[in-house]
Amino acid sequence: MNKIGICGDNCMFCPRYLASQNGGIKELEEVKELWVRLGLRASAVSPQDMACYGCRPENNCAYPEVRACANGKGIDNCGLCQEYPCELLNAVFEKSEELRSHAVRFCTPEEMDALHKAFCCKRQNLDRVHFDIKKPVDISGETR
């Protein structure tokens, strides 16, 4: 199953999404600890508040302007937009690169692999949608 979020995140590799779908409080607590280590959440957040079920209005989104724009246009993700890529999305791509650079210092190789697949291939994921590319994309984001 392929689940690409509005901003290009791949939910099928996202630790929050996977813990919410397949796990319980213990798994969400582990994700919370990772997010706190990365500075993405405060330590006071509850494991339940870490749950994510995809791009839904009730979920805490890192890119609310992007979600509002896509929702306003009635599209599932930015790759379907006539204006792709836009300035809003280019800022998202930059933020993802900053996260990757920061995470390298704090994450295990396994955590980095999951974060890379989930959050660092946004442009490649959205390019595939936008240009209707049917070839598989490997984890480095290159088409085969």
UniProtKB/TrEMBL annotation:
**Superkingdom:** Bacteria
What the entry lists under Pfam families is as follows: DUF3795 (PF12675)
Q: Cite the InterPro entries for this sequence.
A: DUF3795
Task: Specify the protein name.
Answer: DUF3795 domain-containing protein
Taxonomy of origin reads: Bacteria, Pseudomonadati, Thermodesulfobacteriota, Desulfuromonadia, Geobacterales
